[in-house]
Design brief:
Number of strands: 14
Bound molecules: pyridoxal-5'-phosphate
Strand order of the largest sheet: 2-10-9-8-7-3-4
Helix content: 40-55%
Length: 402
Amino acid sequence: MTVTSTPVAARVSRLGTETAFAVSAEAAVWQAQGHTVYPFHLGDMNLPTPENIVEAAFRAIRDGKTGYCPPAGVMPLREALAADISASHGIDYGPLNVALEPGGKPVIGKFILALMDPGDEVLYPSPGYPIYESQIEFHGGVALPYGYVEGEKSFALDFEALEAQVSPRTRLLIFNNLQNPTGAESSPAELERLADFVVRHDLFVLCDEAYWDIRYSGASRSLASMPGVETQSVILYTFSKKFAMTGWRLGAAVGPAPIIDVIAKLNVNDESCANHFVQYGALEGLTGDQTGPREIVRILKERRDACVGLLNQIPGVSCFTPEATFYLFPNVSELMARKGLATYDELRRAALEETGVSFCTRLHFGRALPGEKESYVRFAYSGISMPLIEEGLGRLKAWAAA
Ligand SMILES: Cc1ncc(COP(=O)(O)O)c(C=O)c1O
């Protein structure tokens, strides 16, 4: 059947996407032509789900956990996750504060649908996970991006951008501590300042904590734990990263019960419930043997150290060492100048075609902000093994130096 024009709804023109998938597709075409590709573009993981989780899910299937379950998820997992997050956040959550979702990603759209009316303004990070911008605009909100500034040792929140944009029409703040793509993490002082901002402007907050447990030293801190913010926050939790379960699709919204009730009602309308037996695998993940998640973090740390070391040896590249996430966001302004490359796309294509190294650029993480002067790319090391890291970054170094 050939369709020449399809009368889709007007709102579809406001729907964004993850343009990083286009980078994957391009890398796959290049590989299919017989070239070696070094995949630093993937936010996915090439590590197996821990065996005890796999076994528990099989057991659940055999035990008949194959029908629908309650829209907010099965009670034992809601209880276990509430206990886990209460302990890590110092907030008293119970099962009624938890709605299980088919991934962390659906929490973004459901949070927006539950709390934003068309025309409301929403502050969100750019560079940041591109689904924020897409969902805000798709549902008729006004997207107000704020950025990060490069400091001595890490990126810091751009408070000037936050203060300059907030208005009486601003209703929501989306905040991703342990940030994709920059690896940025707020200091206690920064969190305090942000909490004051939230309370002063009476905002509701989505605390996207997808990378909470992917950390190599210290302890993760949450904006939701700050005085005055707890009752104003929904936490995005995901099983994807900590347990290498990206394809199982399980996450959760955790927050005040009245908001969680609305999100559960959206679940009824969208998918009825998250995948039933997967929830028993996740329960084993949370309450069972923790060797698997510890091993995942150990492997990721080894990769981080190798990547940071090698990237900083490349002429024209400078890269921080984030203590969390599996992303690096090196500054490549000098490299682009050295190689006479004017645009991100030219850099990405040249690197792929001349070295096989594939990565995303700043432009895959939301619209660029006025006045952005420096150029950055994102290296993900969650889907590439050590030998390929060493070989790929070695080739990139030789190309940069030539
Ligand atoms: C910042 C951030 N939030 C949410 C997600 C959603 O992950 P998932 O839907 O696999 O839980 C991701 C995935 O990469 C992410 O980077």
